[in-house]
Design goal:
With 174 residues, the protein is mainly α. The protein has six helices and no strands. The N and C termini lie far apart (85 Å).
């Protein structure tokens, strides 16, 4: 008499059949058997994409921040568009920071001055875009193109800076 409690071994793509012995007692509990299904191709692709995004999440930080900014400005446009004036006033802050850094920590190296100017300009443009997006909506005619340009620029600068920081030796600050 063969052992009827074991599952038959068959190919993975076929239907799974499990032979369960008949219970001989009347008060026996029913047997519940859960057989996992094979994931579909779409489920496997989504899982691999999700795991890849999770492993490289630090590299994609500017893109996530840009998407969050797009959604936030859209909600602020609908709920409180008067905040555009406050954001527009905050657009001057990056140039104030640039002036403060130039006087408190002057840099002799031209590349440091260029990075500071580029960072201040990018922050000014981002804040200006946010003010316009809150005032007129994030999908008003030129604003999506400006958003995309700023997001790509921030992502490229982020990746370049991370790569340079990983390969450059550590210097002491005096």
């Amino acid at each position: 008499m063969p052992n009827r409690t074991r599952a038959r071994k068959i190919a993975y793509d076929g239907a799974r059949t499990v032979h369960i012995p008949r219970t001989r007692r009347r008060d026996a509990q029913p047997i519940i058997l859960v057989v996992p299904e094979r994931p579909t191709l779409a489920q496997r692709a989504i899982r691999s994409l999700g795991s890849w995004l999770w492993e490289t999440r630090r590299s994609w930080a500017p893109t996530g921040i840009a998407l969050a900014a797009l959604l936030t400005t859209g909600m602020m446009h609908v709920l409180a568009s008067w905040t555009a004036f406050l954001i527009a006033a905050a657009a001057a802050v990056p140039f104030g920071w640039l002036g403060w850094v130039s006087t408190c920590r002057p840099a002799d190296d031209r590349s440091i001055r260029r990075w500071r100017r580029a960072l201040a300009l990018l922050a000014f443009l981002t804040t200006g875009w946010a003010a316009l997006a809150v005032a007129f909506g994030p999908f008003a005619h030129p604003l999506p193109l400006i958003w995309l340009t700023l997001a790509i620029t921030a992502q490229a600068l982020w990746l370049r800076t991370r790569r340079a920081a990983a390969t450059d030796p550590i210097e002491e600050i005096h």
